[in-house]
Specification:
The chain has a domain of 122 residues: Trna Endonuclease, Chain: A, domain 1, CATH 3.40.1350.10. It contains 3 helices and 6 strands; from the N terminus they run αβββαβαββ.
């Protein structure tokens, strides 16, 4: 074999060896990509589980807030001059394709105070409560002739949210030390639906 042929064969062997190495590197890259994809799917699943857990925790904290407010509700509104005597938890109604759910209803023969309880109260929660109260008499007709008012509460109530709720005509129930109180001032006049 002449030198040129040997050189060509050497180049071909190098190319073949290089191609084998490239194939091995591509297989390794493919394996790593599959592993990365598997890890991303696991991460996505963990994020979904964590999101669900946080949602459940938020619901449990909302339930906790309800349980804190429920025993104090009658006292709180009597101190505001509303002589209520009943507290109803988790009131819901569906009529004509429309629904309503109220965390707590504090009532007497003429007055109804619908209380929305959240772990962290937001402006969106306040807006949703306005919509809820606009539907209350229609969807809970036994209160059609009652004076309906609203209140909001939460474990965390940012000052701007409390001010917004106040402007919407809601009582704002907050914790102060070991006690619950209504944060609205003496000159507050609740919105009546």
């Amino acid at each position: 074999m002449n030198a040129a042929a040997e050189e060509i064969w050497a180049i071909l062997r190098e190319v073949a060896q290089s191609q084998k190495e490239t194939d091995l590197k591509m297989k390794e890259t493919d394996r790593k990509m599959q592993e990365t994809d598997r890890k991303m799917q696991e991460t996505d699943q963990k994020i979904k589980e964590m999101t669900a857990s946080i949602g459940r925790l938020g619901n449990k904290l909302g339930d906790f807030v309800e349980e804190m407010v429920r025993p104090a509700a009658v006292r709180l509104f009597r101190e505001q001059g509303i002589d209520v005597h009943e507290v109803h938890r988790g009131v819901s109604s569906k009529r004509n394709g429309e629904g309503i759910e109220v965390d707590l209803l504090v009532v007497n023969d003429n007055d109804v105070v619908a209380i929305e309880c959240k772990s962290t109260l937001s402006i969106d929660d306040v807006n949703e409560h306005v919509i809820r109260l606009e539907k209350l008499k229609r969807l809970l007709p036994r209160f059609a002739d009652s004076r309906v008012m609203g209140a909001v509460t939460g474990m965390v109530i940012p000052d701007n949210v409390a001010a917004y709720a106040y402007k919407q005509g809601f009582y704002v129930i907050a914790q102060s030390g070991d006690h619950l109180l209504i944060r609205n001032g003496e000159n507050f006049s609740p919105r009546v639906w």
